[in-house]
Amino acid sequence: MNKKDFLEILKDYLKGHFTEYEINDILRDYEEFFLNGKLEGKSEEEVITSLGSPKAIATELIMEIKGENKGDKESFSSKTDYKSMYRKAKNLAYEGFDKCRNFLNSSDIINGKFPTWIVIGFILVFTVAMLPFALSILGSMFTGFIGLIFSSVGSIFGLVFSFTIMPAEGTMGAFVFFLSLIAIGALIICWTIFIHIARFLKYIILSYISWVKTRFMYIRVKKKKDESDSEVNEDILEGKEKEGNIYE
Fold first, then answer.
1. Which pairs from 57-61 meet CB under 8 Å and 24+ separation?
2. How many domains does the chain contain in total?
3. Backbone angle region of 73, left / alpha / beta, with phi > 0 → left and psi within -120 to 50 → alpha
4. Taking the CA of residue 149 as centre, how many other CA atoms within 13 Å lie in the half-sphere pointing to its CB?
5. pLDDT per residue over 192-201, tens digit each?
6. Which residue ranges traverse the bilayer (predicted)?
7. Which domain holds residue 8?
8. Which of 3, 164, 165, 180 is the 20 to 30 Å CA partner of 204?
9. 219 close to 109: Cβ distance less than 8 angstroms
10. Residue 26: inside a domain
């Protein structure tokens, strides 16, 4: 078993117990074990032996972290076409993120293909550049949320109002009643779409945060590598100086 297999198996065991964001955090921590082990001259098999089996790790994490929240599971059972559309859009986004995952990967950063200041600078510039778009989207979502709340309250009020006027004005009451029902049905669809969009945006934001955290983890490992290389070079220089003194 190699590092890739280990992380994939661990990910499979964690699914259903943790959110995608939590799983990414856990996998990042264990990827750092492999990177640090590599710097220490250990093979992937040796690192895996020291860590234990993915199943045992997942079981321990589930018992420790999720033990108190066994019943706290998010569920959404909508059977509309919008759920299918949401899943397709999410899968497309996931494929896109998966392709972008190799950009500024561990090899590029740790081996010095891209200097640390370039990596940090790129992340800062890209984040700042995307911030106005993110804020505008979040602002639109907030406005839509407020609008849906007021519309929902208005529709419910209209439904209740129709019952109060129905004894005196049967036709008008029935008209308001059916109009309110239509509005409520439309609002249910709108709420469904809104929830899917909100979840999709949450997925994108958390995926980007996870990507940034991983890059900074690579930077930490590179720093350790540079410090280790510096110590090795100092030892070599000291050894050469001692050899020179002996020959003298």
1. 57/10, 57/13, 57/30, 58/10, 58/13, 58/14, 58/17, 59/13, 61/14, 61/18, 61/26
2. 2
3. beta
4. 6
5. 999 999 988 8
6. 114-135, 141-163, 175-194
7. 1-75
8. 3
9. yes
10. yes
Which residue matches tokens 């997942």? 58
CA distance 191 to 214: 34
Mark residue 189 as left, alpha or beta (left: phi above 0; alpha: psi -120 to 50; beta: remaining): alpha
| 90-134 pLDDT tens trace | 555 555 555 555 555 656 666 667 777 888 888 899 889 989 998
Side-chain half-sphere of 186: how many Cα atoms within 13 Å?
A: 10
Task: Find all residues with CB under 8 Å of 105, minimum gap 6, and list them.
Answer: 218
> Which stretch of DSSP H or E encloses residue 9?
helix 3-14
Spatial neighbors of 45 by CB under 8 A, at least 6 apart, are 1, 2
* 68/130 same-domain check: no
Which amino acid is it at 169? E
Q: Are residues 50 and 114 in the same domain?
A: no
Q: Which residues contact 199 (CB under 8 A, 6 or more apart)?
A: 86
| 2 and 124 assigned to the same domain | no
Q: Which helix (H) or strand (E) holds 200?
A: helix 170-247
Tokens of residue 130, six digits: 């995307």
- 201 close to 141: Cβ distance less than 8 angstroms: yes
Q: What DSSP line would sit under 41-55, residue for residue?
A: T--HHHHHHHH--HH
Q: Is the dihedral of CA 192, 193, 195, 200 positive or negative?
A: positive
Which of 35, 7, 46, 4 shows the shortest CA–CA distance to 222?
Answer: 35
